[in-house]
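Anyone else keep sequences and structure tokens together like this?

Example one:
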Amino acid sequence: MGAGAALSYDITGGAMSRDPYRITVPVAGLYEVTCGVVVRSPTGALPFAVAAVNRNREGGDNISSLAFLRFGCGRSESREKVGAGSATVALDAGDYVSLAVNASDVYVFGDGDAAQALTHLEVRWVGVRP
């Protein structure tokens, strides 16, 4: 959805990405969740930013203590932080994952029209649950 829609893909025909803030899995299984963020302050310096991928929690800056994937973001320039992480997690049908970011200042994802191309959240089925 949005400016990066042409760069997005969903082989389920939209079933996994009907909500712009989360990805819902269609069947139970093991999923590889990969996330990369570029956050930029539109007003000046950005001293810190941390990101997490939560299971069945809304996104925004709501970083759960139970998040299965958390990572800090390193400095690429004074007003921009970048980070990435990946984890394999067991999910049930109907579970969803969402990205949360908490930063020391107001931030935007990426920069301009390329924002959605720079920040990504991918959920890939890798097998049945043990």
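And example two:
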Amino acid sequence: MTQSVTFAVCLAAAWRDAHQSPYPGEHFRRADVVDTLQEFGADPRAVNAAIDTDLHLLLLVCRDGPYLRLGPAVAALPESFAESLRRVHNQLPRPRESSTRQPEDEEA
């Protein structure tokens, strides 16, 4: 279950405009995903594990320098899946932080 909700938050972080295709979306911060799910009661270790193992291995989420982004498997999802998601796009759990911070804004 952690994998599903983690992917939902990643999708919401990357896919800001439901009128556009979800892939490639915008890059986003891992910390924003972890913090958002921690507010829902998820264990941060489980969220990080979901990102680093299942979502990464399934190519749903990939690393992009200091950020994450949606992976190529999202591009391969059928259009009917994207259409279904468009109907609930406004209900996806969204991270509080902006995903458009520049790398120099990141703390080392």
